[in-house]
């Protein structure tokens, strides 16, 4: 039984550290990139992966109880809400940015082929 508790502690701590590393990379990406969509991609991926790793690590450290269930519900909500909100913000940027062509690699004639 002690071995399982030690293993759970090591796995939970490892996931917490992994989440912190992902958050550090996210912050680096947000400040490194110049264009708003690149920054938002770094932030959205970091949020989804970092929060998930951190909360799963906390769930392992907490054990099975009501708090673990609440953290699992938060993970599910964030896995659904973060990509949707990032997608809506990026669509707003694409629709309203008049200088979008200078940030894109494809010419505007080929946008429709790539978007469909």
Describe this structure in words.
The protein has 116 residues and is mainly α. 81% of the residues lie in helices and 0% in strands. It contains 4 helices and no strands. Helix 2 (36-62) packs antiparallel against helix 3 (66-96). The longest helix has 31 residues, at 2-32. The protein is elongated and about 65 Å long. The model has no long low-confidence stretch (mean pLDDT 84).
Molecular shape: elongated
| Sheet with the most strands, sense and barrel status | none
Q: Uncertain runs with pLDDT below 50, 5 residues or more?
A: none
Helicity range of the residues?
over 70%
- Structural class, by secondary structure, is mainly alpha
Annotation, overall tally of beta strands: 0
**N/C terminus separation:** 55 Å
Mean pLDDT: 84
Radius of gyration: 19 Å
Strand content: under 5%
Helix tally equals: 4
């Amino acid at each position: 039984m002690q071995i399982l508790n030690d293993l759970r502690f090591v796995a939970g701590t490892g996931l917490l550290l992994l989440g912190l590393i992902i958050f550090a990379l996210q912050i680096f990406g947000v400040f490194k990139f110049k264009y708003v969509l690149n920054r938002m991609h770094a932030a959205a991926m970091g949020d989804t992966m970092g929060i998930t790793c951190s909360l799963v690590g906390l769930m392992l450290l907490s054990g099975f109880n009501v708090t673990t269930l609440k953290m699992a519900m938060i993970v599910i909500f964030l896995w659904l809400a973060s990509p949707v909100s990032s997608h809506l913000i990026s669509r707003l940027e694409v629709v309203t940015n008049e200088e979008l062509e200078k940030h894109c690699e494809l010419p505007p004639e080929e946008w429709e082929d790539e978007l469909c």
